[in-house]
Design a protein that fits this description.
alpha+beta; Rieske Iron-sulfur Protein; Naphthalene 1,2-dioxygenase Alpha Subunit, Chain A, domain 1; 2 domains; eight-stranded antiparallel β-sheet; four-stranded antiparallel β-sheet
């Protein structure tokens, strides 16, 4: 037997940057006309407000005059927000629209230049989305419409959220890490499915077997049915034994923490049995997130993990995800 001592490896924490993209900073019905909110995402203090015409706007929070936080005491004035300190007003494009007591405007103001960074905003699918890019590049794609979220035939959103000390890439990686479902979430085995990467989209399909429940909500002994899950971008659609749609609508708080938000909707005309299965599935998805959190918050990120053939396409996922880091482009 060898007497060689194997030295333990010292791991340094790897800080993944914030990926660029569209992120949900709030639900539409949470922001009324004339309302102002201070929010913190992307490692920055921001101000979110809704103008008198009903448009949601997001700016960097600090007034360029003397540094007051617009989200603490700022007031909506028409299409602008007024600073609580000296009343300077800024529109949703980051231009100063008024200095109430000035006779001669500062050159940037007089020339209509942007004096506060204004984040691109899209309000869609009942969510206020903000485009983040560390170099302030313009949006590279639009937020797609999800028809179920604007249909009267689907239920009001069921909403869940968690604040987690983890990077966006790490939490997203779980979707292709098939083996962890058995060991973290207690599934009967490793789920079978397929994942493909097309441009900026990751598309995964899984088929799962569940106990069969009849239309009245009664268990059918000895019988099983199939649930088909298609995950595309931030949308997951369930069909088969029940129907439901899950939209992920969160945002990074910082490079190492996220505000994860899940919004679910179901068809209003589901039978009692299918509604029961949909409700059970939603509860199970939330249970699984809460099972993942202790893993995410106490693990480290390894650049070169030792993988095996049953792990799922983790390496392909990481290669695909790298496109959303600005320094990779």
């Amino acid at each position: 037997m060898s007497n060689e001592i194997i030295k333990s490896t010292e791991y340094a924490e790897h800080q993944l940057p914030i990926p660029y993209g569209w992120y949900g900073v709030g639900y539409s019905d949470e922001l009324q006309v004339g309302e102002v909110k201070h929010i913190h995402y992307f490692g920055n203090e921001l101000v979110l407000f809704r103008t008198e015409s009903g448009l949601a706007k997001v700016l960097d929070a600090y007034c360029p005059h003397l540094g007051a936080h617009l989200g603490h005491g700022g007031k909506v004035r028409g299409e602008s927000i007024a600073c609580p300190f000296h009343g300077w007003e800024f529109n949703g494009g980051g231009q100063c629209t008024a200095v109430p007591y000035a006779k001669n405007m500062p050159p940037k103001v007089a020339n209509g230049q942007q004096v506060i960074y204004a984040y691109p905003v899209a309000e869609r699918n009942q969510v206020i989305w903000v485009w983040y890019h560390p170099q302030h590049a313009a949006p590279l794609w639009e937020v797609p419409e999800v028809p179920e979220f604007s249909s009267d035939d689907w239920t009001p959103l069921q909403r869940f959220d968690w604040k987690i000390n983890a990077a966006p890439q790490e939490t997203g990686e779980n979707a292709v890490d098939a083996a962890h479902f058995q060991f973290v979430h207690g599934t009967a085995g490793v789920p079978k499915g397929a994942t493909k990467f097309e441009g900026r989209m990751r598309i995964s399909e899984y088929k799962m077997t569940v106990p069969k429940i009849d239309d009245e909500g009664q268990l059918v002994p000895g019988e099983f049915g199939e649930v088909h899950l298609v995950s595309s971008g931030n949308i997951q659609r369930f069909s088969g034994q029940f129907e439901a749609v899950l939209m992920s609508a969160g945002a990074p708080i910082s490079a190492g923490s996220i505000h994860m938000k899940f919004a679910f909707t179901q068809p209003k005309n589901l039978s009692p049995g299918k509604k029961l299965l949909a409700d059970l599935a939603i509860a199970e998805i939330c249970r699984q997130v809460e099972g993942d959190i202790p893993i995410w918050e106490n693990k480290i990120y390894l650049d070169n993990p030792t993988l095996c053939d049953g792990d799922g396409p983790i390496a392909q996922y990481r290669k695909w995800f790298a496109q959303f880091y600005a320094q990779a482009n």
